Amino acid sequence: MIEIKLVVNNKPYTLGVEPSERLIDALRNRLGLLGTKEGCGEGECGACTVIMDGKTVNSCLVLAVQANGSVITSIEGVGNRRSPHPVQKAFVEVGAVQCGFCTPGMVLSAKNLLDKNSKPSNEEIGIAMSGNLCRCTGYDKILRAVKIAAEEGKE
Amino acid sequence: MKYFQPYSVEEAIEIAHASESTFLAGGTDLVLHMRNGKAQPSGLIDLGKIPVLREIKEVDGFIEIGSMATFAELGNSELVAQNAYALWQACQSMGSPQIRNQATLGGNLGNCSPAADGLPPLLALGAEVHLISQEGEEFEPLSTLLSRTPLLGQNTLILGFRIPINGWQSGFAKLGRRRALAIARLSVAVAVEINGTRVENVRVALGAVGRRAFLSESLGRELSGLDLNGAWLEKGVLEVQQIVREALGARASAPYKREAVSGVFREALASIITEGGTQA
Ligand SMILES: Cc1cc2nc3c(=O)[nH]c(=O)nc-3n(C[C@H](O)[C@H](O)[C@H](O)COP(=O)(O)OP(=O)(O)OC[C@H]3O[C@@H](n4cnc5c(N)ncnc54)[C@H](O)[C@@H]3O)c2cc1C
Ligand code: FES
Ligand code: FES
């Protein structure tokens, strides 16, 4: 076991983890944060996306030990039913959520984009969302939701 | 499995020497290889806490890139965009945003897949690789290093890369994503030294044509010392097809790649010469 310290959704934790344990396993199994989803487990789908030190990463490809000393935001740290994040609101409004499996990762990619760039162009939105796959909705809806969230944030 | 997190290069080398462990950079290749059994390291030496390895800077007429610089950092670097355009382009199209945030240039060489996107640009740009082990340090041209088997000695750490800042223009293009069948993948990087309307020197590197990326010396010779115009471009297309033919021989992918390379080659040159044959 290796001891790591990290901040997840503004709360500090000290965890004992195995060297081969992935960040997604630590988040789900040790911290009970089940909003982070495992789709492909191979870095292809983005369902496991979290924000680590201000950058989106696939938590299925990061070892928990690599996150030692990091600040992490998972979907649980973004908003909730009572006060959803503008991105979450826009996703619901536009109907960009069907089965919802991809949604946590999508929301984190969108949030991270808007945190850095409050007026993204359509192209910038397309690039920021390109590492998140959805099997259900058309991408149009997802991209439109991000655009709407960006416009709302500006007001 | 053991785990080490050194804070300096010296410490990392010492641990490598003493423990026969494997270096861990971003982990985008290694974590998957550990899970599917392709890699079974007895220990990991995490390079993530050694700040000097992340640096991208200009030193004495070179761009120096630490092995732990990520594709995202390189793709956001003005220095790289200005002086190593082919590498900058490769960083924009590599993987996804999440992968680019994590994947490093050193890991791209360490893993050395036939289709590693970082390698053709580095080859075309004349990059040298800075290596270190208990035996000492060396700078080795990437083209020479890629002909070694194994690529790296046990316990050898890639410190970084250096690319001469020499006013050459360069470009990169690729076909097919990583998950595409090997037959549908191809990449080309070109660097040219232009003097007025004349192409003084050319370096062309190909990826996913054979076991590792390589620099074609004959192509470089054939295309150097000529005027930059439409005829030069067409000559380049014929020559690059010939190189692919020679490299792939009777392999099943040969006919397809021979055709496809002409488009990829033209695209790699798009920032340097227009379809009409004038300088871009
Ligand atoms: C979904 C997905 C998409 C991808 N798309 C692309 C793509 O489009 N193009 C592409 O080229 N690659 C792609 N890759 C492959 C991978 O991301 C790259 O090869 C990446 O550059 C590896 O870097 P890393 O830092 O993650 O290396 P790691 O996985 O940490 O290491 C890779 C290997 O290099 C060794 N190593 C790492 N650093 C050093 C060092 N400093 N000294 C000595 N040895 C070292 C390690 O021991 C290991 O064997 C993709 C991977 C995934 C999962
Ligand atoms: S589960 Fe991590 S990218 Fe698919
Ligand atoms: S809503 Fe089902 S995968 Fe995206």
Features:
heterodimer; A: 155 residues; alpha+beta; 5 helices; B: 280 residues; five-stranded antiparallel beta sheet; 12 helices; binds flavin-adenine dinucleotide; binds FE2/S2 (inorganic) cluster
The total count of helices of chain B amounts to 12
Q: From the helix content, strand content and strand pairing of chain A, which structural class follows?
A: alpha+beta
Strand content of chain B: 25-35%
Unique ligands: flavin-adenine dinucleotide, FE2/S2 (inorganic) cluster
Average pLDDT, all residues of chain A = 96
| Poorly predicted runs of 5 or more residues of chain A | none
Number-wise, the strands of chain B total 13
Q: Mean pLDDT of chain B, as a whole number? A: 95
Query: Structural class given helices, strands, pairing of chain B?
Result: alpha+beta
Shape of chain B: globular
- Main β-sheet, spatial strand arrangement of chain A: 2-1-5-3-4
End-to-end Cα distance of chain A: 49 Å
Sheet with the most strands, sense and barrel status of chain B: 5 strands, antiparallel
Q: What pair of chains forms the biggest interface?
A: A-B, 27 and 26 residues
- For the report, how would you describe the main beta sheet of chain A? 5 strands, mixed
